[in-house]
Amino acid sequence: MAFSAPSPVASTSVDPLRCPLCGQSNQCAITAGLAPESCWCMGADIAPDALAAIPEAQRRQSCLCPRCAAGQFPGRAPATTTTTTAPRN
Ligand SMILES: [Zn+2]
Q1: Domains of the chain: which residue ranges?
Q2: Three-state SS letters, the chain
Q3: How far does residue 74's CA lie from ligand 1's centre (Å)?
Q4: 41, 49, 59, 80: least buried by Cβ within 10 Å?
């Protein structure tokens, strides 16, 4: 047996490039390979509501996107999205 690759910590697929609240690109400079100081979040005010809305599994895993960080994230209002595959018959 050869070396086995280090297993990922989380079994859920956390994409560090995407906002955990809306799934859009979070435009994080760090994930883009740029200096952390150049990231938009360094000068942004993150809405406390947005931080509180991040699922526990995705905290410290993914950055928010600028819009959600400003408090305009989808989960805040009553859900109108139809992302679930609901059977219609
Ligand atoms: Zn977002």
Answers
A1: 16-73
A2: CCCCCCCCCCCCCCCCCECCCCCCECCCCCCCCCCHHHCHHHHCCCCHHHHHHCCHHHCCCCCCCHHHHCCCCHHHCCCCCCCCCCCCC
A3: 8
A4: 80
